[in-house]
Structure formats: C-alpha cells, structure tokens
Amino acid sequence: MRSVLGTSLSVAALVIAVVGMVIAVLAARRDNDRLWASAKWGAYANLWIMLIANLLMVQALLVRDFSLSYVAQVGSWDTPTFFTIISLWAALEGSLLFWGLITAALTAAVVWVHRNSEGPLFRYALATLFGVGVFFYLLLVIPANPFSPVFPVPTDGPGPNPLLQNHPLMAIHPPILYVGYVGMMVPFAFAIGALLSGKLDNTWITLTRRWTVFAWIFLSLGVVAGMWWSYEVLGWGGYWAWDPVENASFLPWLTATALIHSAMVQERRGMLGVWNLTLAISTFLLTILGTFMTRTGILSSVHAFAEGTVGSYFLVFMAITLVFSVVLLLGRSEELKTPGSLDSVASRETVFLFNNLVLIAFTFTVLLGTLFPLLAESFRGVTVSVGAPFFNQMTLPFIVALLFLMGVGPALPWGKAMKDGLEKNFIWAAGAMVAAAILSILLGVRNVYAILAFAFAAFALVTNVREYITPVRARMKARGESVGTSFVRVVFSNPQRYGGYFSHLGVVVMAVGIAASSAMQTTYEQTLRPGESMQAEDFTLRFDGMWAQDQPQRFSVGATLAVTKNGRDIGTMEPRLNYYPTQEDPVPTPAVRSRMTDLYIVLMAFQPDGSTATIQAIVEPLVIWIWIGGVMIALGATFGLVFGIRKTRGDRRRKRERTPELTTTGERS
Amino acid sequence: MSDQSNDTPPTRRRWRGASLVGILALVGAFGYLLYGGIGDNLVYYLTPSELAERGDAAYETSVRLGGVVVPESVQWDADALDLRFTVGDGDTELEVHSRGAPPQMFRDGIEVLVEGRLAASGIFESTSLMVKHSNEYRAPEEGMRPQDLYQDLLAPEDG
C-alpha cells in the first residue's frame, strides 16, 4: 500500500515537473499568461506532493513498515523515536526524498515571492527550477526509490548508521546543509533565465541576490554544524580533516561567497556580468558534485561507484548542465561584453576582484586535492590519498589573503574618488596587526601560521569595527544622540552593509579560533588504573573506574574521571565507547568541556574487567570561538537579509504613497 | 555609468597586455605550487609486498600500509603506550611500531590500515593506526557481543 502510494507520489511529482518545465518554456516564448498560470500551479502542487511523500516515509519509519526497502535498510525496533524520525536522511534514498521536498518547497517559495514578476526571464528561471526537480524526482522513481517493496518482508532491520545516531546534532546538520545546497539552484535558475531570455542586465542579480544570501546562510551554518558534529562525535579532537565529505560542502560555499561579493560590483558598477553568471552556474554544479561525491560512495573508491547506478545519473546530469550552460554563455558572448572598467586600483571593486580571485584559487586547490585520488585511480590505477598537509599548506595563504582583503575592502570607497584620511584608517589597523603579532609571541605562540593569522585577524577586526564607529560618531555629533540610539539608527539605515560587516567579524573570530586551537593544541595519553591520575596542562584527571550500560539500541562502556583545574574541582567527565550491533568497532562519545580552553577526553581502550583505561586528553584553546564565529557569520547575514527586505518594502511603500498612480502596476515582489 | 571614455586606446591596450602577462604569471606560479604541493603530499595505499617491491624508494616516504595483523605478533606495553606488531598480506610481513593506544577493536587477524613511513631500520614507524571494518552486517558470535565481553562492568559495580 505505502509502496504503491509513495512511488505514485514520486511519479506524479516527476510528471508535473516535466510538464511544468515545458509549459514554462512555452509561456516564456509565446508570452502566454494562461500557460504561465498553470506552470505556477505545478510548482505549488509539487510542494504538497513531496510533503505528503515525506510524511508518508516518516510514518512508515515510525510504524517500522519493513516492506519498504528504505525502512528495511535504516529502520530497527530498537532505535529511539527521535533517531527513527531523523533517519529520513540517514541513507541515500531517504535523503534524496527529503531533498526532493526541499527542492519543491524552494521552487514554490520562489514562485510565491515573485508571483507578480513579469517577463520571460522569470519564466525561463522557473523552467530551470522544474528541470532541476525533474532530475531529483527521476532519481526517486528509478534508481533510488525509497518506497520500493521488499520480499520477503524482514521482521527487523539494522537501524541507521551508528555514526548518525550517536549525536542529536545529526537532526539539524543535514537539513540545514540541504537547504543551503538546494538554495543554490535559485541563482543558477535565474542566471539561466537571463541567458535564455537575453535580458542580461542586472535584473537577474537583483532578483536573486537575496536568495543567494539566504542559501549562503544555511550553507554556512551547515558547514559549521558539520564541524561541530565531527568534533563531538569522531573523537580525534579536531573539527576539519579535509575529508572529501567536508570539502564537498565547502566548495560551493567558496564560490557562493565570491558570488555574493561580485554581485555587489555588478549592481554598483555594472561590471563582472559574465563572471557572475559563471559563478552562479559553478556554485550550482559544485552542489551537485558535492551530492554526487557524498551520496554515491565514489569517495571510498572508484570501484564502489561502479556498483551503484545513481552515480551515473549524477554524472549525466552534471554533463548536461555544464554543456548547456557553456553553450548558452558562448551564444551570448557578444552581448555580454560589459562597458564597465576599473577606475582606480585603490577602490572597493578592485578589492572585490581580488577577493574573487583568491576565493576561486582556493576553490581550485580544494577541488584538485579532493578529486586527485579519483583521477589517480582512474588514470594511473594507483590508490593514493592527498594528505591534510597539502590542504593546510596550500590554503593558509588564501585565508590570510582573505582576512587582509576583508580588512582593506570596507575602508576603500567605490569608484576612484580618493577619500581623505584613508591612511588614518589603516594606521590603526596596521598598529593592531603589529600589536597582535607581538602579543601572541609574548604569550608564547611559536607557530608562524598562527601568528600570521592573529595579526591579519586583528587588522580585519579593527577596520571592520571602525566601519561602525565612524558613522556612529558622526551621527552623535550631528544629531546629539546617545551612543545606543545612534548605533541602532546607523545599523538600520543600511542593514545589508552593517550585517555584512558583522559577518566579517564572525569570520575573524572563527579564524582566531581555528588558528589557536590547531596551533596550540596539546595531547596527553596515559593508561590509568583506578585511583591513578594524569596531568594535562592545568587539568588533573583522576580515573575512578569503568562502567557499562545496556541500552536497547547499543551497549555503552564509559570511564569516570574526576577533573580538577589547578586544584579546583570542576566535576566528573565520562568519555564513552558505544557498541552498536551493526558495527564491530565502537563509536566514541568524547567528553568535552567547552570554556575558553576546551578539555577533550577520549576513552581509547580498556581492560574488559575495568582494571585499566587508556585515556587521551586534548587541551585546545579557543575552540568555542569557532562556533561563536559561525553563528555570528549567519546572524550578520540574516540581519542584512531580513531588515534589508523590510527596508526595501518600506521605501517602496513610501514611494508609492507619494506617487499614487504607481500602485496600479501592482509590482511588489 | 563608467568613465572609460577618458582612457586613450593605447594606454588601455598596454594595460590589458600587462595585466594579461601578470595573470598568466600568477596562474603559472599557482599551478606550479599546486603541482609541487600535491606531489609532496601524496600518500600511497600499499600492501607490505607492494612496499617491498619498491626497494630503496620504499624508505622514508609517507605510505598507508594495508594488511592483516599477524596472529600472536602483538606486543602492547600499556604503561609505556608502546605497540609492536607485524602486518602481513600472505606473502610479505612487515614489523610495525606505533605509539599510543590501539583502537579498542585491534586484535590478532584483523585488517588494519597503518599510516607512517618505513624507517632505515626496516621497521615501519606508524603515525596513525586504523582498524578496517567491513560495512556488511555480521551478527557477533555468541560470547563475543559487548554485553558478554564487558558484563563485569555492568551495574552493580557501577563506578
């Protein structure tokens, strides 16, 4: 029953997406409004269909309907309800189903937000969104149908992958990341819409800028949540290993960040048109590549990929998208010659240009390092991996360069007008830079990379903070307002700008956290008998004994450690090892105490009778600032997005009230 | 909205030529760095036999060595955190030295992946040791479930 119903829903979504795509194209070419109206209804219909299909799957998981292949694959009677619900995205088929829901929801949202937009650009854009939908619904119908029936019906299943049911962060990390990934189809669709309709001015950038920021916020949060998850679950004290799965989420983030910045150049100065189209297309392709890499098993080996058929669908889809986009770009190349040019080297657009170059070089480096093992295996038949040192050495200059540009950019004006007192802006920042370097050396930092990172972070910090201080001061003087009022008024006068600077500050904070925690981390390991203690920097860990706990879905073994810091009691910590019936080696749950300096304790090994335990203690400063910085990045962008929209609406309403005849056009979007 | 009309064509052309050379130089330098960086940091997956075939080239390069822990070869000094064992692939066996506790799963006959380098002494110095687990589900044998192995640790001895 569920199998037939679920599969029918996927088929219906596929059919509607195909028909909707064709109708939207026809509506654009013939300027037919009735066709257009039905295309829009298709977008709303698919949202409901995908919503029902997903609810059906969650319900099947909850009642353990093992007659469905997906439930048989990830379900189990022993899995707690919470993890049963979120196992919707614990494996390929279910996550594609969920993905389909997000695709349908975002398509419907785009149609709703732009429901009053006119012109072929948006119609072609909707056709493109339907086209992306066709691909994902096709996967759900043919190679990865989560609703396919199983015979004979098993009585129980293995449950989700142990790594995915070991931490509640798994409930939020994948959905957030998916929204970020799928959201990148919106700028792509409008870029294709611009190319197909020939409306190559700033319209598509203006229409999608906020969608790009929206997707970018989720992508940023998704990447940070992934780092946090790996820190809390994987038990090696790190949060970023340049693992292909991590890189897959980072690559589109890099190009999307480039797009957000270069879109401003296009809006302000009418330059970089082709470049922005290319960035929107590349970002989308990288999200598909990322899904392909993480979801088809190609990462473990080229041979694993050959076994699954889903991978070839992804390859074909990427090839079609790439060829189609390149042909469109080439076809419009004559019209795309932009008139703008750089007026001055010391202008904000120059800095944005460099920021883009650095981000793209960064992307290429990570992409090469990620794909190299696959290329080597395919062409040379050797199995290799690219070590983390490659990524660390190669990307550090990029990170430092980005921090530097982030410090320089906001202080420089658009165009060529040389602002007076520019030097003064930088004297403070340069001073802070030198001070930070000296201070970190005095505090005992010997790692050159970390000192560089601190110095440039201080530079960017000062210039970005000054961007708040200068206008607030000016306002206080001119209007006689208090600091608080003045600050609020300034920030709300241009939410996008000041939100953006806050995101910059988030990046600075994060960079400091990463540099400090990786350069100043110390690891201690010792085998202890009950009553014995070990020392880790200021912390003393006394081993009080082993314990075990038999839960329905797993068996946990833990060590109890009484921890003191400089003789002061700070409580007990209990690192665990969790044994899941489906996996031989245990999944660790490190005990983490997050303050200015993190204490991270892992139970490495133990005697079955509890007579000894081998404990690893990692002391890492400032890790918590990575998460705080990540939240700041998202908060700044969200502030800019939300209040930017409200401000635009307010401005428009005021304009309309002044000129009443404009209201009849009904142009709202 | 651009002021390009002020530019005289020759300066523009010279600018363009110069920036083209500049960009090519940058891309070239970047490519060279990338190529060198990746070459220095490639880690090959090899079996003990494949490593042995490399002769002198085998020494002092980063390798991921895959094989099976030869039964009764494990010497683990828990207090010194010093681990010695032999990895074999059926043909060749290689002595491995590692510091730090092995994964809880580590035992005779299990497949391991050892990252490190072959020292001049002929002993493979490991920097990280992973147990390879198959993704296929196998029910543990009777008496080998954690519930059985670690039943001493269950309450009431709860510490």
Describe this structure in words.
- With 669 residues, chain A is of the alpha+beta class.
- Among the domains of chain A are: 1-160; 522-624, Tick-borne Encephalitis virus Glycoprotein, domain 1, CATH 2.60.98.
- Chain A has helices at 2-30, 33-62, 69-74, 81-86, 92-113, 120-141, 173-183, 185-197, 203-233, 244-269, 273-295, 302-307, 310-331, 348-380, 388-408, 422-442, 448-479, 483-493, 495-519, 624-658; strands at 384-386, 522-528, 533-536, 539-550, 555-565, 568-573, 576-579, 587-589, 591-593, 597-606, 613-621.
- In chain A, the strands form two sheets. In chain A, strands 3, 4, 5, 6, 7 and 8 form a six-stranded antiparallel sheet that branches. In chain A, strands 2-11-10-9 form a four-stranded antiparallel sheet, with helices on one face.
- In chain A, strand 4 (539-550) and strand 5 (555-565) form a beta hairpin.
- In chain A, helix 2 (33-62) runs antiparallel to helix 5 (92-113) and helix 8 crosses helix 11.
- The longest helix of chain A is centred in the C-terminal third of the chain and has 35 residues, at 624-658.
- Chain B is of the alpha+beta class and 159 residues long.
- Chain B has two domains: 11-40; 44-131, OB fold (Dihydrolipoamide Acetyltransferase, E2P) (Beta Barrel).
- Chain B contains three helices and seven strands; from the N terminus they run αβαββββββα.
- Chain B has helices at 9-40, 48-53, 146-149; strands spanning 42-46, 63-69, 75-77, 82-88, 93-99, 111-118, 124-131.
- In chain B, strands 2-4-5-7-6 form a five-stranded mixed β-barrel.
- In chain B, strand 3 and strand 4 form a beta hairpin.
- The N and C termini of chain B lie far apart (75 Å).
- At the A-B interface, helix 14, strand 1, helix 15, strand 2 and strand 4 of A face helix 1, strand 1 and helix 3 of B.
- Strand 1 (384-386) of chain A pairs antiparallel with strand 1 of chain B.
